[in-house]
What we know:
Layout: H1 2-9, H2 22-50, H3 76-90, H4 96-120, H5 130-150, E1 159-161, E2 169-171, H6 173-195, H7 203-220, H8 223-229, H9 240-258, H10 267-284, H11 288-294, H12 296-315, H13 325-331, H14 336-356
Antiparallel strand pairs: 1-2
Amino acid sequence: MLYWIAKLLSAHHTTFHVFSYLTLRAILAVMTALAMSLLIGPPMIAWLSRYQIGQVVRDDGPRTHLPKAGTPTMGGALIIVVIVVSTLLWADLRNRFVWITLGVTLGFGLIGFYDDYLKLVVRNSKGLIPRKKYFYQSVLGIGAAVLLYRTAHAPAETDFFVPFIKSVHLPLGGIGFCALAYLMIVGMSNAVNLTDGLDGLAIMPAAMVAGALGVFAYASGNAIFANYLSIPAIPQAGELLIFCSALAGAGLGFLWFNSYPAQVFMGDIGALSLGAALGVIATVVRQEVVALVMGGIFVLETASVILQVASFKLTGRRIFRMAPIHHHFELKGWAEPKVIVRFWIISFLLVLAGLSTLKLR
């Protein structure tokens, strides 16, 4: 919106041409999202506390989590609102990728909101039945995948690109592309949700991955940069840098309140929407493999749950003391802040590894 206003004013004064630069608008999106989070956070936390919308702690979890009972949750609504407002303010709203990403974020946010509502307001301990949750996620994931495929303008937008090998790109076709996009969107959504079990554990890696994907989006949207870096050139993908910047800013703002000991939790409304957003952005810029590397913590958490369940069903024995794996380290005696910070460090290194693929091709 502000981008559109600045563009109109640029016809009368050249100063407003500066807002045509993606990098400036990305910085402003980060600052806007961060400032909004810090301003809205305290009254939102107070409102959640007043209406007793608090966390329910599992009886079979680590005993150190029992004091967390009653901590305000559903704080992910703050993240979504801030991302949407910041993106609408600074992005070019004629861009299809911006609207698809916003739609996916809001759609998965609604699924998470309904699940949180059932658990925390209706007091239904099971929340949304897993098969219904997965059905709604699948509908949105397939819908987004089909929309991306049907609106693609060039083969590069639907081919599969292999990192480190500049000349290898495999045509996927409609079914292949939609299947991969669906798995990325739904898979990342649930992976982030599984990771969100400790104070700040999920939001910091999500912000870092979003920032790195923003770099890929900026480079892919510029034909010169894309050609030099040997990455797929995706026209209009650069505008997703604004969304990624807003997500990073909102994430840092939320971390202010979510850091240990947390004043608020994001809940499913935040975790499901953030993961889906990362999945759809990775799909747009054709960096699915790199996104899985950068989001390695999310992959690790998901793999630990799959392995734990499979091992117990097949052999009757557990691989980890508790899954997801962050609980395993807690039960081994690691203090919660130590688990969180060490996972952040690993995420940072994985994000750097992903960014390095820009030149190692």
